[in-house]
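If you are new to this repository, start here. Below is one unmodified record pulled from the training split, so you can see the exact layout before writing a loader.
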Amino acid sequence: MSDSLPSFEAARRAVTALANGGVHDVVVAPGSRSAPLAYALAEAEAAGQLTLHVRIDERSAGFTALGLALGGKRPAAVLTTSGTAVGELLPAVMEANHAAVPLVVLSADRPEELRGTGANQTTRQPGLFGSHVRCAFDVPAGEDPGPFVARAVREARGGGAPAGPVQLNLAFRDPLVPAGDAGAAPVEGPVEAPAPPHDGAGTLPSAGGDGAAAGSAEALQEAGRRAPSAPAAGGPIVVAGHGAGELAAVFAAHLGLPLLAEPSSNARFGTSAIAPYRLLLGHLGAGITRVVVFGRPTLSRPVAALLARTDIERALYLPEPAAWFEPGRRSERIIDNLPELLEFAGPAAPGWLEAWRSAGAAADAAIATLLAGEEGLTGPAVAEAVWEQTDGFLVLGSSNPIRDVELTAAPGWHPLEVFANRGLAGIDGTVSTATGIALAAGVPTRVLLGDLTFLHDAGGLLIGAGEAEPDLQLVVLNDHGGGIFGLLEHGEPATAARYGAAVERLFGTPQQVDLAALAAAYGVAFERVTTLQGLETAMERPLRGRSILEVQADRQSLRALHSRIQDAVAAVLAP
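And here is the target side for that same chain:
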């Protein structure tokens, strides 16, 4: 071991490789075994090479790093000590895997001679994340980690493969603190690292995969010259799932096709976008002959049923490898270029788009009229207001909020960018993810989430003294439990009649947490709104620092409300 690298020198080389690889943000959870890296990162921050964010909860740290990667569109790293701390990162790693987010996990470890001996805080960390990481390197104590780090960051970016998480398991021997003659200038504290442009060199490709919308439009015009000019025999549509990007909207408008765009597709705009599409499929779906899919559809059972139909042709545009499905496991025809996609879709039949627009407008009006007559605040009305009032980033929690936005968000307005954890669609880590997104780009960010999603990651509100605080507003729709289950099979009258009490306890999971007291404990501004006007007024104020807007709603009437919405739409669309 005489010629091996001391722990601090090895850590410095790892940090240099991180910075050289374009990692600008590192989230650090405190620990002893990871101390060499922590000191080296502090040096790098003082030198303006990167920015540190400290969190005491490793699960929150992992999701904060995930958000930093999403908001910055570049790899972000998270550092933990050994033991259970590493396991706390698994949920964020799983989400990053399925959502193709470049997350670099730096897990500190005991050296080989201590593994398997019962040494404190020691377990088998190499391979802990299994198939959820693109690569995993176990770097022995004393070895130069620089080449491993450089390769791992490249793997995280993807290149010819999907981007995603990587693990660097770095073993360190004592001493774990820098020697007195380490050669570094005194580290006084954090300084603001210069952030690269949001779309600067080294950033990830856009979700559309074919470049910016302008470039995509040019590509479509060129490809369109070779596309057939005859009208389609039936009715093609475009489905834009999560991460589809602006290209989906450009493509639909170019061909005059109805666009069914999920909120987190970032394609829900333009002349082809139809807002309440999931309620229209039962009325217009029979006329659909072909479906062009961009991104990953995750929200709507009617859309899932549409994509499962064998009587229509379906194509999935996939210009790059995807992380969210395994090759051969999707039934759509895979197309990787625009000329072939245009040929597959063909132009719209006369009147096809107009029929969808007319039905969409009628359904919109029916929903608006019904919601205006409801007593109290409802999820769909709140979702529409949040969408309309957000001109920065918008983060949508899983469960009902993102589906309420899907139902009511008007395509005439679009936030700057919409984010959601749809890789595995979990409710965990939403507050921390949104915090990372807001910090990454410095863009005021609003979050719409339910009470259980909020409480699941309440620890994400903890930001230590002296740490950067984002401009972040959490709009919490508090219906005191899990509202989505009442809209599923568990809320059906027959089920409720037999298992009502069990359904409420096991799925409704009622809670009576005082959100105002919780916000006060974390030092976050709090306001409870009771009217739609009050909500809109609160959201019109400049978004500075962190705040919580609690909106109370009635979960018990939710199923009946959605039934009335369906009936109202069916009535205006009846022949």
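Two things worth knowing about this chain: Residues 352-372 form the longest helix (21 residues). The chain has 21 helices and 17 strands.
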